[in-house]
Amino acid sequence: MRFGTGLAALGLSIVAVNASPIVGNVLFPPTRPRTTVSQSLYDTLIFYGRYASTYTTAPCKNPPEGTVVQGFANADPTTEMTLFRDDARKQLIMAFPGTASLQDFVTDLSAQQVPATIAGVNCPECKVHQGVLKSWNAIQPEAQRVLDEALTAYPNYELFLVGHSLGGALTKFAYASLKSQGYDISAAYSYGEFRTGNQAWADYVDGLSGNTDDNQGPYYRVTHADDGVPQVLGPLQGYRHSRSEYWFQKGADGPATTFRCYGQEPSDCNNSQLGIGVAGINAAHIFYPGINVVGCGL
């Protein structure tokens, strides 16, 4: 989430919402023990994290070297998407920043589940987070128009999706919507994403990505230390994460402390550490490896 001074003050003045996070080692046994990632994957997780903290009002106003802004979309309620173009890698990167305003914060907390009325998605059993659905449906037409224009101009470029916090939740909706419509998505990297729907929704996204214990898949749900945001809206409220979690246990310490985690709700990764904060927001949420929403270059 990205914070102005007003939102930070608001955060200090309210009581944590949505109940305390549920620590996972009781409710969520892992399907198999976590495993360390390769140096290559670690570097990739760091690299794409930078896009999640790059936007016009951010401390990091410039994307990674060699990247240009291909297009931009915004919509009420204050939802943004930036489409980056990396000519060296031949990639288009659709990036969603996190919470910027009081309206965004309200979106985060609009946690009632409603039917998944998302372009392309056919899942009658799926129930999703009302606030995120409203934000995605507001920006989807313009975001998709910008993307289609770019894909027409650069038909041989790969498509990647990136987001942090509320932007991570929007990344999941974008992935489900675009993938269901037949877009070829090379990978999606979601950082600090909170749960966005019920079991059917988690299973639907896993079905689209093909993520299983035996198949790494293209959807990377990245968490960090005791970040409390991925822990809010728990299963007792009818919410469930999709696969596959990748956990920075101790920050940017390298692949030896960065893990691939198994199952939808593994108890030996982020769920193993109780994340204390206002609505789950704490230092681990703000300072992801590759992401620093109050400074640049970390």
UniProtKB/TrEMBL annotation:
GO BP terms, alphabetized: lipid metabolic process
CDD domains, per the entry: Lipase_3
SUPFAM superfamilies, sorted: alpha/beta-Hydrolases
Keyword Lipid biosynthesis in annotation: no
Pfam families in the cross-refs: Lipase_3
Region forming the signal peptide: 1-19
Record protein name field: Putative feruloyl esterase A
